[in-house]
Amino acid sequence: MDPISIQLWLLIALLIVAISIAILTVKIFDHLRRQDAKSQAKKILDDARKEIESQRRESALQSKEEALQRKAEVEKELTVIREKLHAEDRDLEKRKRLLESRAEELQKQERMVEGNQRKISEKMAVVKQQEEQLERTLDEQSQALHQVSGLSREQATTQLLQLLDRELEQETGSIILKHEKKIAEIADQKSREMLLTAMQRYAASHTSETTTSTVDIPNDEMKGRIIGREGRNIRAIEKATGVDVIIDDTPGVVIVSAFDPVRREIARMALDRLIADGRIHPSRIEEVVRETEKKIDDHIQKDGQQATDEVGVHGLHERIVHLLGRLHFRTSYSQNVLRHSVEVAFLSGMIAEDMGFDRHLATRCGLLHDIGKAADHDAEGGHPKIGADLLKRYGEGPEVVHAALGHHDDIRLEYPYTMICATADACSASRPGARRESLDRYVKRMEELEEIATGFKGVQQAFAVQAGREVRVMVSSTQTTDETAAKICRDIAAEYERQLTYPGEIKVTVLRETRATEFAH
What we know:
Elements: H1 3-149, H2 153-201, E1 212-216, H3 220-227, H4 232-241, E2 244-246, E3 253-257, H5 261-277, H6 282-311, H7 318-326, E4 331-332, E5 335-336, H8 337-355, H9 359-368, H10 383-393, H11 398-406, H12 416-430, H13 439-454, E6 459-465, E7 470-475, H14 482-499, E8 507-512
Parallel strand pairs: 7-8
Antiparallel strand pairs: 1-3, 2-3, 4-5, 6-7
């Protein structure tokens, strides 16, 4: 063989040996890996067994703890139940003893009642014997009376009945007068309590306004711009708003005067906007006045709706709600008419509820009784008639219509809500702080009241008290009698009604005193 073949065979032999060694090595590694995996698996199984055993022991311990806790809770509940049962047993024992004592007491009372019945039976027997004896005595006396008087039994009975009739009539009259006086006192007291309770349960604030409003201006130059060239701006303002704009030497203000408070408020707000804007000319004035009128109209509607919501009166016509809102800008003797109407509504409802009438209907009558004041600038007649016509036109019931018509004068008993409304109206108008007058007007009114009263023959002095709601008149005892004093009182009240206008009523009290004086020497 040549050396190349020998080398080739050596290489092949080496290659075979290397492959055998590699195969052997892989088998050895595989065997070792298997051994290692088995040992790891065994270890994992052992750990799992240990963990399972540990969890089993923990579960057993936890179960024992829960069982012990549950046992303690059950024992606690059983203790509470036992205590309740013991308490109930004690309560039942007490009741049992109480019932036994009551039973003994009832037995005693039964024995007493039986004894009383025996005594009553004995007394009734005695009384029956006495009645029989009395009847025999009366018969004997009656026969003797007939023999003495010479009257028959029928005639004597007739005379006796007539005598009893006259006596009963006198007694009945005195009893009726006594009860009438007592009932009148009770009714007067109850009515005062109702009125005082209603007035104490409700109190409302009052706002006062005058017939003029002031508008602040930043400087005197603005006065000239408000007047305009040859007065065209001020004429445009007065024409658009229907008010009088007064510009005098008073610094920093412009006066707006109008009898209609709505027009006056429109003019005041429009002037405020024009002064703030700075552009003052006729076309701008008309534009601002139109916008202000729309704003005031919305404000009026909102005020009316708020008033109806406040007193809980719903279902009113939209025009009636708008007229209610206009009352916010109307005052009567410095009292805001809308707040006055709301107060009368509350008072009427309270009075009606105390008297057993319909509270909601009375509240509705009170809220709408002065609605005519919102339209008396546009219609002829007094506000009661105007208000009644408006309410009838917009579908209100006869009670509400008559409350507006008659809350001052025409009060009929078939409409009790008119009387309730008139009472609430007088309470709201006359309570302290509701209305006020200027000092000069107040003094003049007091003087007029006293002057009218002293003008009657026999009157010595007259005093106006309680802010003119009462006049006390002193008359001469020599020139007048009790009858003429009553006539003077009536004549003075009639004269007040004829000559004066006033809210509410004026009470006239005439006092006549007789004095006798002697001297001992």
